[in-house]
Specification:
The protein is built from 13 helices and 16 strands. It is of the alpha/beta class and 415 residues long. The longest helix has 18 residues, at 273-290. It is globular and about 65 Å long. It binds pyridoxal-5'-phosphate.
């Protein structure tokens, strides 16, 4: 049998075939009970996911975008208020903020982690905001109260939550985690003197179960996690047309429930998530080893307080587009997360941002390349990905490779 040379960016078939009988049992259970919306499969998953995230409540909803919108609304952000986040994320983060009636305002990222820069957040709060008579933080740009921060745990690595929560406390802001890429990621909190899970540190958090996520449904799905029973109750209302019981509507809500079949599938997959995350971490360590002698590849930076779950393995290289073409020619799939920062998207042209407003995000966007990263990636496949990348550089930089007159374009991993 000929072995396929094609290495996909993502393999969504193999992990499902491994669990085929458990997953098809879920369909059978739903067919036999007609339990399609709500019911025991959703409740079972909510309990299991709350326990996985070490939180009091998990509320299953229909997508990560809904989860974030509901988390923002239920945490108390009011229409017209300003919510701070990064321009280096998927547009769902800012869609959720806008659709909750608030206005997103951007803070640039940290060059090493690619997550929210605490230093820039502090500078923004000191220099770009005023305090009104009642002590509220007011954005000078919008002339409106700033009430929340949405740190995004991008690529599977948590933002620096102790520092963010500290600043949020000083300025009276809520923190709502966008944990859509970070199922199982951990942060060592000096304040609590222990490792804490993504989704357990803010007022509330949002997860996505889009199929390619570390924990993915076979369709759309999401969840809000929180330790606050009032927030949890409000999210339950929002996801189900504002109903307290059938046809009794306390507020206008949404059709934002998770299908029971998706909940059942997620329940069947959840016991495997920790092992899958461990495999991803091992693959990340191996990539780091394979690129150790290459001065042209900047590997992801993991601070000592972080245990990333490597939803994505994102390197940085100067000749990104050329390398991407080179890998495509070698039948190796790659992707960009994300090529156009949000402040430069047409959708946000009305905010009047310009190129140069968030220089680190812009630089990162030009250099990032996401490599194949999934638990089923074999050692041979990974070695071939690295080999193709390493073979790209000697030709582009003759004489500046493997210890011969190396003057790297990047500082390796900034460690
Ligand atoms: C950072 C981030 N936030 C929010 C979302 C939205 O999740 P969903 O696609 O499930 O609506 C995603 C999904 O990719 C994401 O990556």
């Amino acid at each position: 049998m000929e072995i396929s040379k094609n290495i996909p960016f993502l393999d969504l078939i193999a992990p499902h075939l491994e669990l085929e009988s458990e997953l098809t049992d879920v369909f059978r259970k739903a067919l036999h009970t007609a339990g399609f919306v709500g019911g025991f499969m959703v409740e079972e998953f909510e309990q299991a996911f709350a326990s996985f995230c070490a939180v009091g409540h998990a509320i299953a909803v229909s997508s990560g975008t809904d989860a974030l919108r509901f988390a923002i609304m239920a945490s108390g952000v009011q229409p017209g208020e300003v919510v701070l986040t990064v321009p280096n994320t998927f547009i769902a983060t800012t869609e959720a903020i806008s659709q909750a009636g608030a206005m997103p305002e951007f803070i640039d990222i940290d060059e090493r982690t690619c997550n929210l820069s605490v230093e820039k957040l502090q500078r923004y709060l000191q220099e770009q905001c005023d305090q009104d008579k009642s002590g509220k933080t007011i954005s000078k740009r919008f002339g409106r109260p700033v009430t929340a921060i949405v740190p995004v745990h991008l690529y599977g690595q948590m933002a620096d939550m102790d520092a963010i929560l500290e600043l949020a406390g000083q300025y009276g802001l809520l923190v709502i985690e966008d944990a859509c890429q970070a199922h199982g990621a951990e942060y060592f909190s000096k304040k609590h003197n222990r490792w804490m899970k993504a989704g357990s540190m803010g007022r509330a958090a949002a997860f996505s179960f889009y199929p390619g996520k570390n924990l993915g449904a076979c369709g759309e799905g999401g969840a809000v996690t929180t330790n606050d029973p009032v927030v949890a109750a409000h999210v339950r209302l929002l996801r189900d047309h504002g109903q307290v019981k059938k046809y009794y509507h306390d507020v206008e809500g949404y059709n934002g429930r998770l299908d029971a079949i998706q909940a059942g599938l997620l329940c069947a997959k959840l016991p495997h998530l920790s092992a899958w995350n461990t495999k991803r971490r091992a693959l990340a360590a191996e990539y780091a080893h394979l690129f150790a002698t290459c001065g042209f590849v900047t590997i992801p930076y993991e601070p000592s307080w972080s245990r990333s779950v490597y939803h994505l393995y994102v390197i940085r290289v100067a000749e990104r587009d050329e390398l991407m073409d080179h890998l495509m020619a070698a039948a190796i799939g790659t992707a960009l997360h994300y090529p156009i920062p949000l402040h430069l998207q047409n959708a946000y042209s009305h905010f009047g941002y310009h190129r140069g407003d968030f220089p680190i995000t812009e630089q990162v966007a030009a250099e990032i390349l996401s490599l194949p990263m999934y638990p089923q990636l074999t050692a041979m496949q990974q070695a071939r990905v690295a080999e193709e990348i390493l073979s790209f550089f000697p030709a582009s930089h003759p004489g500046r490779w493997k210890g011969i007159d190396i003057s790297p374009v990047h500082v390796k991993s900034h460690a």
